[in-house]
Amino acid sequence: MKVYVVGDHGPEHNSIRSIHKTYIGALKAWNALRTGLLDESKHSLKKSDSKYEKELYSEIIKNLSCNNPKKIDNFPQETPYIKEYHIKT
């Protein structure tokens, strides 16, 4: 039996957000997580005053715009993921 774990990881955390029976369900949850992180970054970009922060949030926005869970890379910031696990029954 397979299960799909959706979460995000960063330099100091690994958070599991949900577990799904199907890849399609996991993909929907992953995309919702990714777009939520993307919206947060866009909001932070609008509020940022320094050049460094603007460059940082612009890079994060570019990275989180990738809609392929196998290719997305936002290291060292929060990166959403889907992991497949095989469970013995």
Shape: elongated
Mean pLDDT across all amino acids: 96
How many distinct beta strands? 3
Rounded to the nearest angstrom, the distance between the terminal CA atoms is 7 Å
- Strands in their spatial order, largest beta sheet: 2-1-3
How many individual domains? Answer: 1
Please bin the fraction of helical residues: 40-55%
Question: What distinguishing features does this structure have?
Answer:
three-stranded antiparallel sheet, 3 strands, about 90 residues, alpha+beta, single chain
Explain this structure to me?
The protein has 89 residues and is α+β, with helices and mostly antiparallel strands. It has one domain. Helices cover 44% and strands 28% of the residues. The protein contains 2 helices and 3 strands. α1 packs antiparallel against α2. The termini are close together. 21% of the residues are buried.
